[in-house]
Structures are given as structure tokens and as C-alpha cells.
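Re: that backbone. C-alpha cells:
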């Protein structure tokens, strides 16, 4: 684990990604998260295991390129985003959606 995230593992994971492709991965126990772009795989594994109390068996990460944005005559870049696909051990799961009681 890197020194940067040793104190605050909660800063590693920003939010879960809920897309059509990520939702299909839930059937095979894969969860997709947006993570800090400086986080390494051991940081992500430690954060998921501690925050959600599950056993992680594999992590795939990807750094898509930053996209350009333009507002009027001003151009810039969107924030750097890193995605992590986390595979959990059999029998473990993460509750992403609250139970509806209606």
C-alpha cells in the first residue's frame, strides 16, 4: 500500500459507477468504482475490503484519456478519472442499491 492513502482509505474510492455494462458485471460478482487517479491496486483492494467488509480476489484498473471541454472561447480538460473493476470472492456482495419498501 502506498504512503499517500495509508491514513485515509476512504479517500481512495470516490463513487460506484452505475452503467449498463457495470450492472451486467454484478451478476458475476464484479463491481465498478471511480477511484482516485493516484491510487494503486493494493490501495483499492485495502479500501474495498475495509469499507465493505468483503474479500477481494482481483482488480482491473483503467485510466481513460482526459476529454477536452469547451465553454465559449475557453477550452480545458475534464478531471482525471480512474476506473476500477473489483472481483469479489464467492458469497460476498456489496449493497449498492437501498432496499425499496414500497
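Recovered sequence:
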Amino acid at each position: 500500500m502506498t504512503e499517500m492513502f495509508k491514513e485515509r482509505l476512504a479517500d481512495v474510492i470516490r463513487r460506484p459507477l452505475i452503467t449498463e455494462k457495470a450492472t451486467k458485471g454484478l451478476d458475476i460478482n464484479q463491481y465498478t468504482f471511480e477511484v482516485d487517479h493516484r491510487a494503486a491496486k493494493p490501495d483499492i483492494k485495502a479500501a474495498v475490503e475495509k469499507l465493505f467488509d468483503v474479500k477481494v480476489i482481483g482488480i482491473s484498473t483503467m485510466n481513460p484519456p482526459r476529454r477536452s471541454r469547451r465553454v465559449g472561447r475557453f477550452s480545458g480538460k475534464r478531471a482525471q478519472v480512474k476506473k476500477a473493476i473489483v472481483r469479489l470472492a464467492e458469497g460476498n456482495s456489496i449493497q449498492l442499491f437501498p432496499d425499496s419498501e414500497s
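The beta strands are 13-16, 30-35, 56-62, 68-71, 74-77, 82-88. The mean pLDDT is 89.
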